[in-house]
Amino acid sequence: MTALYGDEIYVDNANVTTNDAYTVADLRLGYTKFFGAWERSLFVGVNNLFDKQYNGNVRINAFGARDFEPAPERNFTTGLTLRYDIAD
Q: Is the pTM of this model over 0.85?
């Protein structure tokens, strides 16, 4: 599990508009199995585990007051890795 904290920041030179602080958590579980020189790893993950609404990017002094770009909602990942070890 990983967590990311983003502190409140100003988004304009006048220090009037701010982006709120946020904390986002991700969770990833995996399994690794060895078959001789082969390694197989499977994983599943959840990004933005608690479905927090926050801004993933802030454009400082953006034209037309379009300073904020929302981050992705909760999403899921899965994957498989195969590796062959070519030892001496």
A: no
CA neighbor of 50 nearest in space, from 15, 75, 85: 75
List the beta bridge partners of residue 23.
Answer: 5
The C-alpha atoms of residue 5 and residue 38 are separated, in whole angstroms, by 38
Binned at pLDDT 50, 70 and 90, residue 38 comes out as very high
Largest CA distance in the chain: 63
Separation CA 47–CA 32 (nearest Å): 21
Token digits of residue 24? 């986002």
How big is the chain, counted in residues?
A: 88
Place of tokens 């909602």: 73
